Structures are given as structure tokens and as C-alpha cells.
């Protein structure tokens, strides 16, 4: 009994008795047919995998967040949860917390800043004692208006200011948006 | 011909086995050859434990944390399996680095083994990718925020970054699809690639054989089986024992509170073997992120990948060794700095404690008789007065009220309080202060309000002052008990039951001269409804809900209401939110019986 039938049913190189022209056509055909067969699952798969690219932005429009009376009159910022309807793939949530903003009075206006750090997406914290915002991840530092206030801050831009409207006298409405992290300009996600 | 002979004739398995086991090792089996085998063993352990975890894991935003909680706390041996998977992942990284160093020192990366070196390098990156994708899967705060940073950095890649990030997380924001995609990578794509590469790696290794260290050329040859296998087995057992020891010593892998995009997590850090990258990024000011996150790491990896070629030059091998050690020293240095800076940052230490408290709280709630609702673990926290009450109080109430002088979360607002301090509202202590002439007009009670000059303050300061000392000593404690009993505070239930008789007397005192609360208030069917709050059920859940809903109702302050907004009537707060604040103020939340 032989030890190991390494070459069972196999041989290297084309059989000598097939004419070259037929061999060429067969190769071409094999490549075309094989590619066609393979393209179908790959194409369908690619389409499904690329689906997230056509998902729109998560702009929720203007959302009521709080009332003016809840904001400290001395202009110190305060964190508020933003609630809105949200669809996450197959789940739809009504009026659910979707994020948070810092609100503060500034002269007659209200400033709204997304809590997400424009550098790498961490949750910026308010350092009330130091009168500034600081990111707990890579130490970006912002003043209370959200401007970068330290040259060594890794953040490429100010905290993301959001559009604010005061409606019906004292309701604070905010257009809650996210922006791409790590770039100079605000590009909505 | 017996069955095995027949099988061998049809498959040739004996030859294959013989080739696998009786590999000839020039110079004999050695301890320094164990690294590859222990790594293979570590990855085998990850496959076994991974498949077991997979059998209980649910990759969706309302099931991931919950299923991991189940694995960790309720499944027989679940915590051990998860713990082994967790620590063996870390051991794999360590072994990879040791294996790499071994290869470097022995010069085993040079011709003709270049391709195998590259395979190994690819394996290193695949294992790191496995670790990165695995970190998110429990969907706890730690994994959520750390992975957000990682995908944010991916999105900084020039041109394709944003699309890449969107494809990775399955849309514009984190959610179900982030988990399904990470899981598909973690349990499908990456392991398949690892298997293919290991097969290729071992094939190439066998093709070129071991690199016999200098000075060992004359030693007698050996075989893979059993000489080297014994050594590999011992090493694998040591690795396994170490990992198991870590699991038992630490109590297994940690599970934080469920991921919450609205809840700050200031303790977000990647796994320790990524800390150097995290620290590294701190040194790149605005405009240099791409250099720091992509260009320099890319160049360094490029140099490492080029090492087999660099090694051909005369001093190439020494350069490679120096470069590799410098790289490792740099990584070690950055890791140490990251840890040292965190340890020295009180805010980080505090954030870590807060995070642990939140994690402990959600576990307490999940272990309660009501368990985890279908909406998931996050819903437990969001419907928990202990967790949510202070948040809502800080956001909506603390611009006027205080809680023990702070905003509910421990911060002291800069504005002066303009309404009462609500810590202990309804308790005997609180009522005692209300009826204290020295305190009723202080900032703790009516000091900041229009009521500072109102009838109640006048009554406490002047009306009660006319009581004789005996009356004061006899009547006021009864009033305190009776009014406080209306609140029915859980913490006072025993005291209220014990003092039932005194409370009954107190009710009579409240309804008669000289105290006579019912001159202005309505109390248990007696008295005037005179724009003074009804005292029947005062401080009870129902009473407080109504008060916060709309204090301008007749039962509350009516037209006398100072500045208190109608949170419910104006739809500023939902009834559920009002309930959370009320329950928190009343000290009414779930606590595990054993006080865990």
C-alpha cells in the first residue's frame, strides 16, 4: 500500500492534446462565467453592506429643551438632555433622550453647545470651578462660549454651537445636530 | 484491511498526521520555540469561549448589555467563560509581542522568512481589531465611549474617513447596526481571516523550519512530537493558569452601566494596550490630528513591515532591533504616562467612582424582583428615582431650589436660591425648621420668595411667638409629627406608626386655637381654602405631583403662587419625570433587601 497519494487526479499544466485556440476560448469562458456567478452574491452583499451610506443625517429639526427660567441668570452653563423621536434601524422610540447640550445665557441670547467634543467625540464636562469646559479624554479646553482657549488643545474647532430659538416667550428650542469630529469646519453628520 | 487502513487509503490521513507531528527539529526542542504554539493555544481558547458567549449573546442595542448581564450574573459558569475570554484577549496581545520580540532577536524575520513575518504582522493587527470590536459588544458606557473615540479617529482619515465611519457603525449614529456590524466583524470576518493567516503562517514556518539560535547548531536533533509538544503544552498550561488566576482574582470581566449617549462618561479609556495611542493623541494640537493618528503610526508600521528588507543591510539587523526596542519603550512610556496622569487627575478618579456606582446601581435594579424590562437595562436607570431624580432636579429645579445647599448632583449653583431647600421635604426635621421663627424666612424656606413677607412667615414669627413656653413645648412637636405624617415618607413609616396617638393629637392641635393651621389651610375637611396649600396629604406623592404639575391650582398656592412654573400643565416635564423627582425627594426608591 502506498504511503500518501499526493497526486491523485491532479496534473500540472494543460493537457497536451487540446488545441491552443480551444484552450484559450475555454479559459476566457471560465473566467467570464466564473466572474458572473461570483458577482451576483458579491454585488448583492456589497449593496446591503453599503446601505448605511444612504442613511440620512440625524437632524431632528428644532426641539424644545427647557425654559429660560431654568438657566442661571449669571450666565453659567447648565446641561440639559435633549429628547426627540428617534429611529434606530428597526426600533422607533418616541420622545426619547437622544443627546445633551450645554445652555447658557449670554447677554440677551442663549448659547447652545453640543456636549460632544469636536476632537474625538467624548462627552465634554463643565468645570465650573475653573470657569471652562474640559474634555476628559485628550484634554481639549474651551471657554464658556465654547471657544478653544488653550493653544495645546487637540480640538480643531470650538465646541459645536447649535441654533437656538426662543419661542412663546421663554421656551428654549434647539436644533440638535452632530458634526464630523476632528476637522476645522463644522460638517453636519 | 481494517477500517483505519481503508480510511487512510481514501484520505491519506496517516501521512498528514505524520508530517504534522514528526516534524524534524534541527538542534532539538527548545523553550524558546514555544511562543507560536502558546499563541495558537490562546486563539483556540478564544474560539472556544467566544462560541460559548456567542450562544448567549444578543447583538442589539436593547439586548447586548442585557445578555452580557445574563451571562455574567445568571448563567452557570458564564462569568468564568467571559472572564477567560476577556483576559485571554489581553494575554494574546502580550504573547504576540513576546513572539515578535523572539523572532526579532533570533533574526527569524529575515530571508527567506519575509512573507511569514508579514503574515505575523497582519495577525497582530487582526488581533488588535478583534480586541477593538470586542470592547464595544457589551454595550456598556466604557466600551461605548471608548469606541466612539476610535471610530471618530477613523473618520479623520482623509477623503474616505466619514464614509468609512458610517459603514463601520452602520449609519450616522451608534445603534443596533453598530452592534450587528461589530459582531459580524468580531465573530465572523476577523476570526476567519485569523484562521487563514495562521494556516498560512504555520505552512510557511514548516516550509522554512525553525531558526536555530547561534551556538546550538551542534545539539542533537529532535521531533515536534513529543519533545516540543511537551514544552508547548507546559507553556500553554502556564498561560491558561495565569488567565484563570486573573479571572478568579478579579471576579471576572467588569460590566459597566448600559451605554447612554446622554450620560457623561468621563472615565472613557481604551483597553490598556491601546492606552499609548490614546496618550499619544494628547500631544497633537489642533490641525495635527491626522499626523498624530494616521501619518506617524502609519510610518512606524511601515518601518516595521520593511524590517525584513532593512535586515539585509550590514547594520540592518541592529537597526531593526534598536528600532523595535525604542518603539516598545515609547509605547511603555506613553502607557505609563496615561495611567499616571489619570491617577493624578481627581476628576478622572471621581468619574471612575461615579461610573462604578452607576454600574452597581443598575445591577441592583436588574437583580430586583421586577428584573430587566424588555426596553432594556438603560430603561431601568432612566426610570430610577435615585439616578434620574437628581438629574432632573439639577436641570429644572435648582435654578430656584436647593437640595442640602447643592443642585442635587453636588454642585453649588452660582445664583442665590430663590425657593426652599427641598432636602428632607415633608420630614419632621423639615417641618420643625418651617415652624422655627429664626429659620422660616431664611433661604432654606421662604427667604428668597415673595412669601418671605407673607402670612405664613408672619404667623410663624409673630403668631407662634405668642405661645407660652409650655404651649410651645407641648403643641409644636405634635404639629410637627402630625403634618409630617401626612407625607407618609418611607423613611419615617416606623416612627409614624409608633407615634400614631401623638399624631392624632397633633391633628386636633392643627385644627384648633391657638395654633389653628386651618385658619388659612384646609386640613382633613376642616378650614378655609384661602390660596394657602391644602395640608391634607401634604408632602405625599400625590400632593407633590399636583404641586409640581401646577402650583396655581386652588389646592396649592392659587393666585398666591410666586414664581413656581407649572411644569406639568405647561408640558415642560412629563408626569413620569415629575414622578421621578418626587420619589427621589421623598426617598422612595428600590433598594435591595440586604442593602447591597
Biggest interface, CB < 8 A: A-B, 66 and 64 residues
The radius of gyration over CA of chain B amounts to: 35 Å
How far do the termini of chain B sit from each other? 68 Å
Strand content of chain B: under 5%
Q: How much helicity do the residues of chain A have?
A: 10-25%
Shape of chain B: elongated
Distance linking N and C termini of chain A: 69 Å
Number of domains of chain A: 2
Query: What would CATH call the homologous superfamily of the largest domain in chain A?
Result: Rieske [2Fe-2S] iron-sulphur domain
Q: Kindly estimate the percentage of residues of chain A that lie in beta strands according to DSSP.
A: 25-35%
Please work out how many helical segments of chain A DSSP would assign.
1
Number of strands of chain B: 4
What would the average pLDDT of chain B be, to the nearest integer?
A: 93
Please give the radius of gyration of chain A in angstroms. 30 Å
Spans of chain A of 5+ residues with little confidence (pLDDT < 50)?
1-11
| Tally of domains of chain B | 2
Walk me through what this model shows.
The complex is a heterodimer of chains A (189) and B (596). Chain A has one helix at 20-50, and strands spanning 62-67, 78-88, 91-106, 109-114, 125-127, 132-134, 141-142, 161-162, 164-167, 171-175. Chain A is an alpha+beta fold and 189 residues long. Chain A has 2 domains: 20-52; 62-175, Rieske Iron-sulfur Protein. In chain A, strand 9 (164-167) and strand 10 form a beta hairpin. The termini of chain A are far apart. Chain B is mainly α. Chain B folds into 2 domains: 20-258, Cytochrome Bc1 Complex, Chain C, CATH 1.20.810; 385-585, no CATH class. Chain B has helices at residues 3-11, 13-21, 34-54, 64-73, 78-105, 114-136, 141-155, 161-169, 176-208, 224-250, 275-282, 289-305, 307-310, 316-343, 346-366, 377-382, 385-397, 428-434, 455-463, 469-487, 493-498, 500-510, 541-549, 575-585; strands spanning 24-25, 222-223, 522-523, 526-527. In chain B, strands 1-2 form a two-stranded antiparallel ribbon. In chain B, a hairpin with a 2-residue loop joins strand 3 and strand 4 (526-527). In chain B, helix 6 packs antiparallel against helix 9 and helix 17 packs across helix 24. Chain B starts with a helix and ends in an 11-residue tail after the last helix. At the A-B interface, strand 2 and strand 3 of A face helix 2, helix 7, helix 8, helix 11 and helix 12 of B.
